[in-house]
Q: What sequence folds into this?
């Protein structure tokens, strides 16, 4: 499992602003607008308690502070507890938290204690990046390429299928590729075969690998919506094809979680 590093989270506010600019350019709405439209919710004055967690690989420096900045950016009042783990959870609830945000190495959750709704970061991230991609105003068709069918990619790809897109898909794991494409009704599209040169204007990518998108399949001005870290495409190709890149390490997925539990 690829965990975030403090370097990924540097300048989280400017990363969010840049992502918001790109999302608006691609869809006509900002991240809040997409979440509001998609989940049908708006933040009131819910207080968010962020609990640092020490288990497994432990606390990621700036993870909790980044969540605090992200919650504020999307209009939520939040605080980080002084204590971690169970003591931190107790502290959060005692101090009036209505929504708890906390993560160990496997699960990053948002739990609304008032209405009981709970969200997991992986599907929330996949679905919102897929939703953003699906709203590309200048798409040339309803064909979409989905790359990576893991914990983030699978729910995103499923969302695109359910929205009625013609989804082509690839995963480096052959068994998973076969299983997922037949289960979801996706057309397998082998990116490792250079003869596959169909061009896409909408690409959704969720892998932990760099440079997964080859030059042969990208069209000028295509959208690549990708939560995957590191980046799916080289800077050189991004410039050459004027790619609209939606990529941000934590905030878009967290916004999706928060709006989904309102
Ligand atoms: P996962 O391990 O469950 O799935 C990754 C999938 O990518 C696997 O099925 C693997 O076979 C496939 N893959 C690996 N290399 C590939 C290649 N070259 N071409 C095609 N497929 C390839 O991982 P998960 O949990 O789905 O996370 C994916 C990425 O998203 C990670 O980098 C993770 O850190 C990142 N992430 C980002 C978030 C954000 O808010 N930006 C939130 C959560 C995760
Ligand atoms: C661990 C989070 C690991 C990731 C979104 O409280 C702390 O500081 C740590 N226990 C947080 N998960 O890196 C996922 C979540 C993107 N990657
Ligand atoms: Mg994100």
A:
């Amino acid at each position: 499992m690829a965990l975030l590093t403090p370097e990924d989270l540097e300048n989280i506010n400017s990363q969010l602003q840049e992502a918001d600019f790109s999302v608006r350019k691609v869809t006509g709405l900002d991240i809040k607008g997409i979440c509001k439209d998609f989940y049908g919710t708006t933040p009131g004055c819910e207080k968010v308690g962020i609990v640092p967690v020490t288990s497994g690989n432990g606390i990621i420096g700036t993870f909790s502070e980044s969540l605090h900045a992200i919650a504020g950016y999307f209009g939520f009042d939040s605080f980080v507890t002084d204590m971690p783990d169970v003591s931190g959870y107790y502290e959060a609830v005692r101090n009036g938290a209505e929504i708890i945000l906390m993560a160990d190495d496997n699960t990053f959750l948002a739990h609304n204690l008032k209405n009981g709704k709970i969200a997991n970061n992986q599907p929330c991230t996949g679905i919102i990046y897929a939703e953003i991609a699906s709203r590309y105003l200048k798409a040339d068709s309803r064909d979409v390429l989905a790359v990576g069918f893991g914990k983030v990619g699978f729910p995103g790809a499923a969302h695109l299928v359910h929205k009625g897109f013609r989804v082509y898909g690839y995963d480096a794991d052959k068994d998973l590729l076969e299983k997922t494409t037949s289960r979801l009704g996706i057309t397998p599209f082998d990116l490792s075969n250079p003869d596959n040169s169909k061009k896409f204007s909408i690409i959704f990518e969720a892998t932990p690998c760099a440079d997964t998108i080859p030059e042969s399949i990208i069209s000028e001005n295509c959208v690549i919506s990708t939560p995957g870290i590191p980046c799916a495409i080289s800077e050189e190709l991004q410039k050459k094809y004027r790619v609209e890149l939606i990529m941000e390490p934590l905030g878009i997925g967290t916004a999706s979680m928060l709006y989904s539990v309102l």
Residues 47 and 77 are 5 Å apart (CA to CA). The pocket of magnesium ion (ligand 3) is lined by residues 125, 227, 248, 250-253 (CB under 6 Å).
